[in-house]
User: Fold this.
Amino acid sequence: MGKEKIKICDEFYDIMPPEYRELVDSATYGKEGRGWKDVGIAKELIEEHSLCAGCPESIAFRYVMACLPNPEDTVMVGSTGCTSLVFPHVAVHNIHSLFGNQNAVASGLKRALAYRFPGKVKDVVVLAGDGATVDIGLDMTLQSWFRQEKFLTICFDNELYANTGGQESGLMQKGFVSKMAPAGKKFDKVRLPEIAEESGCHYVATLTVSKPNRVEKAIRQGILIAREVGPTYIQLYTPCILEIGKQAMEGLQEMRDSEGPNERFAFKEYISEEAKAYLASLEKEKKPAAIPSQA
Amino acid sequence: MEANSVIGTINKKGQKIVDPEYLFFEAPRQQHFMTGSEVVREAIRRASVDISVAYPITPQSEAAAMVGDLYVEGYVGDYFRGESEFAVMSQCAGASFGGARVFTTTSGPGTLRAYENFPMWAGSRLPILINVMVRGINSPLNIQPDTLELGMILDTGMLIWHAETAQELLDYLLKGYIVAEEPDVHLPIAIVIDGFFVSHTKDMVMIPSADIALPPYNPYRSPVPCMDMEVPPVRMMRDPFVMKSNYISYATHASWQQEIRAAIERSRKHTIRLIGGLIEEENSDAEILIVSSGTAVAQGREAIRLLAEEGIRVGIVKVKTLRPFPHEEIRQATKNAKLIFVPEFNVVGWMAREIKAVIPDNHRVIDGPHVAGGMTMPPEVIVEEIKKVLAGKKEVVHG
Ligand SMILES: Cc1ncc(C[n+]2csc(CCOP(=O)(O)OP(=O)(O)O)c2C)c(N)n1
Ligand code: SF4
Assistant:
């Protein structure tokens, strides 16, 4: 597995689009321990994006793509929203079908892949906005967890509907004035991480994307646990700087401000007992390999 | 080619994979007396279905549950109950994107709840087969058959075949996969029956042996990439189509929609070969014709017999496929008719509208009779309608 899948026939090398050549020459297919540090050296799996300048979703996207443990066999499922403008530039197979049904599509997809390739690792990763995850698609989000579907759900929580111009969402903070919440949002931010835990997710993490190491670890754990144990959920704060009125350079600070110990994006992680045991077994497997003289 | 290579092999269930033509036209068949729901089970037993997702709604719940039994028996790869029809159709989409052969069923309100998925299936070229067992959709609540829902899915980009009998149901379910999966078609297909009238009544059906099955679906014959990472991934596009100001976006979207419609038309040649034409005619040289689809045709035939006893000669044209719509066939079959009656199990008369739209002198079309909300269509009602018009007692509604 790995790069041989994307190799270009010599005769066609010069006429292939530069982004495809880049994918073959510098992407990290088949590389153990790929991660966020590859961003910058290689363009990785996103050539370009059409988000607003400085949008934290763009760096979050790059981290996610760089941290997929198995991009050569990963299919992403997205939803309508700002993220759907990035998916066309993503170099792994990805599906955008409708608004809110991403976890249902992923359920069917994961089962099809498991049935067609019983001996092979095929990861499915859902990545959608908070409106798609928590409002219009909430039943399908939850039901995929109840059914223990084996894929990671990532929510880019920008606390509103960005793509349609800043309407209230279930993850918006109480009291925030937005379009369609003219007198301020009347109810609390939906506690989806807690609900995820209760609904059967084996790994749940809440964080911002200000610390790439943390994002990398969460993504890897989310995918590995989903592959073997059951559903996992990661909620990343990716503020919509446009709709909350920030400058292009202010996204990082906004994330730092909201990840303090008592803030709503303080880092939190839940790992089920089963998942802990699985992670420990992975660690054990790694150790003998690290001491080749014993082999 | 690859599909051919599996012919003659034995699947996990011990069934022999046979050439579809053999299964359809040559394999010995035995007569069974069974309900439409049981016929669905027998078709799916032989259809090499990978994944089926189900949700209960009368009158299709029974068939959907029986497909679950097939999963337990090992004839269907995976099966589960989704949380709503919208979710089920999305789950079917995911499975089909992943390269599986997919089966599901729905009825009435379920069809409407699922609706947003249908044009998405077609636009994504997912050859999902859905068995629609029509029922009333409107308030007040009704679980009885009514084809109003069919008028609403006509232009989603799906192929739509309307079976009249349990036998046709069996054959259409199996043949539907083969046509829908042709590379030059590759579209979703709805196999429709009138709920209860077909699903819950017993009928004689000729069924081939259970130890043969269709070749499995080969997702690599699809005109769009199968989402399984087995073919090289590429950056899909550089310019998202949702950027509406972009001329390329406009041109791509418009031509893609035309391509879906063109693919529906390209299905004709395969369909005609497998189901023997898009229409069926009986005495279509008569001056009075009945034209309709589904069980309205069966009632029309009985009306014709009653009218013949009174010396009134009436012919019939049965429309087997609603998409592609057999416009040229209907034009030809109705060219000598002075009056064309269109009995329908719905209040709006969408079939009459379809016919009026494709024939010359469409004032010949009498939009009716109609029954709605689960009433059967007594042949006497059709007889009465025809006699009323003949006696000049009923004003002809001009198209
Ligand atoms: C059925 C349906 N309703 C409404 C829309 C319009 N719509 C498009 S994107 C969107 C909001 C997306 O919000 P979110 O999921 O939070 O993603 P974001 O854009 O914030 O990243 C809405 C309402 C749609 N595409 N489909
Ligand atoms: S609207 Fe907001 S979330 Fe969307 S791209 Fe712009 S800044 Fe990012």
The first helix of chain B runs from residue 2 to 5. The two ends of chain B are 49 Å apart (CA to CA). Residues A 80-83, 99, 128-132, 156, 158, 161-164, 169 surround thiamine diphosphate (ligand 1) (CB under 6 Å). Chain B has a mean pLDDT of 94.
